[in-house]
Design goal:
320 residues, alpha/beta, Rossmann fold, 2 domains, seven-stranded mixed beta sheet
Length: 320
């Protein structure tokens, strides 16, 4: 069992968690108007701390009162401001569900809720794993839900959100994830990106799981299997056209996500395929319906078959 590394706080500051603060600082330096709220000590201990130091009049600390923070952020938005609200990811959907639903989504306000430490990356064990949030967010009207794959994409999401109307969830992990994109590319909220074309299987993934999917596709290519990879960075609104395009091309679809097998990306893709009458093979790779074992994220992924080896084996089994 994955028990060797339970609390590896040396990896606490992830690239994406640094990237959102760096991009917010750039926006502030460009003269863009927005407010920033934060909870706990995550923001001050990261690059976002520079905004707090330089622009204290636009930053508000709510300590460990996440529901109050989300509710107050809604009030600021109702007063005409764009608000970025950094919240410790495991507590955002569970402690502030009412405020997200009623204050943020129902009022359809311009608040960008940045949930850090998502998936099994929090480092605090099962009570701090954020694996049910996408299921909640998908069911709430008006919410846009974006899961950046790497630091560069996180910056693109932050910048694009300045021109986007309505409430948004930006879900990022804690641990440093490898860069997916080596050069600049066009990013549009709600439009999936096909990273690798495949004719034998299609892997649809999001967030930090994408890197393992890319590595799985590389492994399979060496065996003569053509597996495509689709970056479904926006969970809601879902790019159904892209899903159907890669599904019908390949005939075998696998979804991979750092989330419960229930209600997340896999559920959204399954609904899309079923409603379209898709008759090919389909498999979800995600956290099973249980509380996770303790361990470093990479160890947990391996334990549950969510790493490159597990993903590749799921595709091999489909093609047998």
């Amino acid at each position: 069992m994955a028990v060797k590394t339970t609390f590896d706080f040396d990896q606490m500051l992830s690239n994406a968690k640094e990237a959102y603060g760096e991009e917010l600082m750039k926006l502030a330096e460009e003269g863009r108007e927005f407010l920033f709220t934060y909870s706990d000590n995550v923001a001050p201990s990261s690059s976002a701390g520079k905004i707090i130091e330089k622009y204290p009049d636009r930053c508000f600390n709510f300590g460990i009162a996440e529901p109050n923070q989300v509710g107050a952020s809604a009030g600021m938005a109702l007063a005409g401001h764009i608000v970025f609200a950094q919240v410790f990811g495991p507590f955002l959907p569970l402690r502030a569900a009412d405020q997200i639903h009623t204050d943020i989504a129902y009022n359809d306000v311009n608040v960008r809720l940045i949930g850090t430490h998502s998936g099994v990356t929090a480092g605090g064990g099962p009570t701090h794993n954020d694996i049910a949030d996408l299921a909640l967010y998908r069911a709430i009207p008006n919410l846009t839900v974006v899961v950046p794959a790497d630091a560069g994409q996180c910056r693109k999401v932050i910048r694009a959100s300045m021109e986007y109307e309505g409430p948004m969830i930006i879900r990022i992990d804690r641990a440093g994830s490898p860069d997916i994109y080596a050069e600049d590319y066009e990013f549009k909220i709600g439009k999936a990106i096909e990273l690798i074309e495949g004719k034998d299987a299609a892997i649809i993934s999001t967030g930090s799981s994408l890197y393992e999917c890319m590595m799985a596709a590389k492994m399979l290519k060496e065996e003569g299997i053509s597996a495509g990879v689709l970056d479904m960075h926006t969970i809601k609104p879902l790019d159904r056209e892209a899903i159907l395009r890669v599904a019908y091309k390949a005939g075998n679809v696998v979804t991979v996500e750092d989330h419960s097998v229930n209600g997340g990306l896999g559920g959204a893709v399954a609904e899309t395929l079923c409603e379209a009458g898709y008759t090919g093979k389909f498999k979800r790779v995600a956290m099973p319906d249980e509380f996770s074992v303790l361990g470093d994220p990479d160890e947990i992924y391996k334990f549950y078959g969510m790493d490159r080896t597990g993903i590749a084996e799921q595709i091999r089994s489909m093609l047998r």
